[in-house]
């Protein structure tokens, strides 16, 4: 059917609909064509956080919290949980390395003046599966290089949903290298500063009740999980049912007389229907109390915070999967439909400026931990797989940015809207190699060799005890 014929056909069907008649089936096989009465464009399109779907370093539009609104962050990082035990071989290498470093002070200073910030999913791991090149990167940065020097690095992820210590323990096993909480930032790590502003909060996201522990560790006085609310009144979520174990773990309170100060979405929801329902109940409530409705919800909405704004993220699946940004957009659309107004919300995580400012503090603290120097390296390299968060934020903050092809990015030579200013690489190891050679010289060796620095092991060397 030609386009003019289609237009005529749709006009005829529109008239039939207005007369209360069913539209006439077309002759396209067994299908019945019924024209949609509503646009296929999402109602949430105008509500999207401009840095979540397609943020661009080249085209920055206005937004309530896009590099402008104040997002509280902690003044100092968390305490390290890195084990202090050292194996004899490592101690031996440290002694030899200190001698080499004394003779190569200029190169040592250059090494201390660079640092790396790694995204995790799609750069170092896919879910709980190691990206092979990442293990070698950890070895090089932890001292397996010609100077035997530790090159400062942090992990900067939009992931979350569990305590920093739990995630660090998990990553240390996957990466086969010890990771400290002092060099680790999850999307919600800076949100611990919000405990200075709010006492009673609703939290959701992640596995089980883990985000409740996260919020309690951050210092929030009264933490309520959405499952606690569901256990208190199962009718609040008609299509979902808690397991017996979940009911046992729930902390039921007198929610009829409890006012919530704020809502914290710390990670991806595992039960969209229940979490959305309870969140909307509070957003529409009178002074943050369940089972109430405000006369003017737009004037009485309690604050809601999302830990990050990514729409998709890489997993072990062949294609990226939806993540917290999609959940947020759904809530924004529902709120708009129910109230006619735009939802006021704050989004943390990359590419927000607050995340990068907090990262500076973490890098400085880690420099003190490994080199006893509380300084901020001048040459920081952000290595990520997502142009809209990792690269966009790094570019705006003045970091060197490296885009890898092991995660979200599957494009051409570089991303069009958010091009990585240092380049695009096949994997994280190639990115690190390029950065190290730029800062320390093309001849810099990314491997420690005892025989080259220990005279006893060199050809013709004589042991002092012979």
From TrEMBL:
GO terms for cellular component: mitochondrion. InterPro entries: CDP-alcohol_PTase-I, HAD-like_sf, HAD-SF_hydro_IIA, HAD-SF_hydro_IIA_CECR5, HAD_sf. GO terms for molecular function: hydrolase activity. GO terms for biological process: glycerophospholipid biosynthetic process. Signal peptide: none annotated. It comes from the Eukaryota. Residues 1-25, 53-90 are annotated as: Disordered. Keywords: Hydrolase. Pfam families: Hydrolase_6, Hydrolase_like. NCBIfam families: CECR5, HAD-SF-IIA. This is TIGR01456 family HAD hydrolase.
């Amino acid at each position: 059917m030609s386009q003019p014929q289609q237009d005529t056909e749709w006009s005829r069907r529109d008239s039939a609909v207005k007369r209360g008649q069913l539209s006439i089936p077309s002759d396209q096989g067994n299908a019945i064509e019924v024209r949609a009465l509503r646009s296929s464009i999402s109602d949430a399109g105008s509500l999207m956080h401009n840095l979540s779907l397609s943020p661009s370093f080249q085209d920055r539009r206005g937004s309530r919290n896009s590099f402008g609104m104040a997002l509280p962050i902690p003044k100092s990082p968390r305490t390290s949980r890195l084990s202090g035990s050292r194996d004899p071989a490592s101690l031996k290498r440290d002694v030899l390395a200190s001698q080499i470093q004394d003779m190569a002070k200029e190169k040592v200073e250059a090494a201390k003046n660079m640092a790396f910030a790694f995204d995790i999913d799609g750069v170092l791991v896919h879910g709980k599966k190691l990206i092979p090149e990442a293990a070698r990167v950890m070895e090089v940065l932890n001292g397996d290089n010609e100077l035997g020097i530790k090159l400062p690095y942090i992990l900067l992820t939009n992931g979350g949903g569990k305590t920093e210590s739990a995630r660090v323990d998990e990553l240390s096993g996957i990466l086969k290298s010890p990771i400290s909480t002092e060099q680790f930032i999850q999307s919600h790590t800076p949100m611990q500063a919000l405990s200075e502003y709010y006492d009673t909060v609703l939290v959701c996201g992640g596995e089980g009740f883990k985000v409740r522990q996260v919020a309690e560790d951050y210092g929030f006085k009264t933490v309520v999980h959405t499952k606690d609310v569901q256990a208190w009144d199962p009718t609040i979520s008609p299509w979902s049912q808690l397991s017996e174990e979940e009911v046992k773990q729930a902390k039921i309170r007198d929610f009829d007389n409890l006012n919530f100060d704020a809502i914290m979405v710390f990670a991806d929801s595992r039960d969209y229907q229940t979490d959305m329902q309870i969140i909307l109940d509070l957003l529409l409530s009178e002074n943050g109390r369940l089972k109430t409705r405000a006369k003017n919800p737009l004037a009485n909405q309690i604050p809601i915070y999302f830990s990050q704004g990514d729409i998709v993220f890489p997993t072990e699946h062949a294609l990226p999967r939806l993540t917290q940004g999609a959940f947020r957009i759904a809530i924004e659309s529902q709120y708009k439909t129910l109230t006619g107004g735009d939802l006021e919300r704050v989004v943390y995580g990359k590419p927000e400026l607050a995340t990068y400012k907090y990262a500076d503090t973490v890098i400085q603290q880690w420099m003190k931990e490994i080199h006893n120097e509380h300084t901020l390296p001048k040459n920081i390299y952000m290595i990520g797989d997502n142009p809209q968060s990792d690269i966009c934020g790094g570019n705006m903050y003045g970091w060197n940015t490296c885009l890898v092809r092991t995660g979200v990015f599957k494009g051409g030579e570089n991303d069009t809207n958010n091009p990585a200013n240092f380049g695009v690489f096949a994997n994280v190891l190639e990115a690190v190699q390029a950065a190290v050679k730029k800062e320390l010289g093309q001849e810099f060796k990314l491997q420690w060799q005892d025989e080259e620095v220990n005279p006893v092991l060199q050809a013709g060397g004589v042991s002092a005890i012979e």
